[in-house]
């Protein structure tokens, strides 16, 4: 049976019977990176430590949804094996190759690793001109046998999220919450309303991650659990199994 493990922030292990994919590795120690600028506080990132974790144990491939530092950082760049299969945005493939990765696999539509099909899906990292500036970004759907996991990526709630849920009918949806934002403008990841809309639309558990680790993610786990009690809000290191 497939499962999902939250490592920290957006770093996930998507585990099927035969294949494990590491998503959005951010391995840096507390405070090694500067704060995200133009945000309501100046706390250095990451804010919390990485749980005990071997980044390559049992991992068959790595998927980077986009190259923002909170999804792929210097520590991950150093820790990952150069020859690991690395799935990424087509626009970002050359950057990974220039960093020495030798098995870069840009996902135009779908690719396969082991017994898992990986399909790129639309995402919108904010609103209006800001969303355009934050691109490229995407979600990804993982399918193996009759089990399907939709990792929505850095996106707000908009028409493509329910459309993807309707198309793939996932057994588990993962949304990046935290209501990340700058001083001006609307959140660039899901806030309480976006998570609630996903819960209301999906006929499966909705797991909310992307909280507590980065200074501009202002929505806390406690607040989300209180406002959207039907969402699954795991702690770092926690595993969530797909429903039987």
UniProtKB/TrEMBL annotation:
Start and end of every Metallo-beta-lactamase domain? 19-200
Output the superkingdom of the source species: Archaea
Listed A to Z, the keywords are: Hydrolase
Short name of any one Pfam family annotated for the protein: Lactamase_B_2
Entry's Gene Ontology molecular function annotations:
hydrolase activity
Which named protein is this? Beta-lactamase superfamily domain-containing protein
Q: From which organism does this entry originate? A: Halogranum gelatinilyticum
